[in-house]
Amino acid sequence: MKQLNVTFKALMDPTRRKIIELLKQKDMTAGEIAEHFQMKKPSISHHLNILKQAYMIQDEKKGQYVFYSLNTTVFQELLYWITHFTDDDSNKGDKGEEKE
Length: 100
Fold this sequence. Notes:
This protein has helices at residues 2-11, 14-25, 30-34, 41-53, 72-88, and strands at 28-29, 57-62, 65-70. It is an alpha+beta fold. It is globular and about 45 Å long.
């Protein structure tokens, strides 16, 4: 459950959500990501670190560059957690009682 809290905290920020959208399209360097924002590179690095701590992205050094990519496993786990509420409880009322 603690990991879900970290994940939701990472998703709360619109900049981080935009970074995720960018990385959905292709793997990118921090510099390429920064081109899409009007903020300094240290701020982008801060957002990337939060996403890494939430295991939502991963980095890989290729030559002199570090490329960031999505870790889709976290999104699959998040989706599983969310759909868990609609699968088993869809026939229950507000107090957990069966609907008629």
